[in-house]
Amino acid sequence: MTSKLKVNILADGGDNAIMTSDGSGSLTLNNAALKNTPAFYMYANSDTTCTAGSVTKITLGGTYYDTDSAISDSKFTVPSNKGGKYLIGAEVALGDTTNSLHIGIYVNGSHSYDSLNWWQDFGDVLSGASRTVVIDLAAGDYVELYCLVDGTTRGLNSAQSRTKLFGHRLIGV
What we know:
elongated
């Protein structure tokens, strides 16, 4: 014996649709509090450089997604009423090896989180660094990606979007 509950709309006591279904298996969450948004993913779509001995802002001109239109000038800005805890990740890939690559996740123009390089040969990417953090952000706060190399100025590798900054608001925390 099987039991089924068939609904196209799940509504609260005020008749506000919390979830809807189109009848073919696609479910839509209508309550913003149930979504991990805002969410964004931007990447370097042209080769740029990390200047030796100088902290350099990374230009991220490509966007995979930006749920709240919150990306501008290579930075994500928290929209109004969307403050909270955010999972933020970054990865920088270089076209050649370097002794030391540092990447920095900056909040409101200040250095907040950094990472040292990892070494891996992907054919056209020989070294890189990555970092993932949970950050408390308020409306209007902005997040950017920076790099620093020791020794020689190095070119970033933009092939297959290997240099990127991404994140989303966490729910339930």
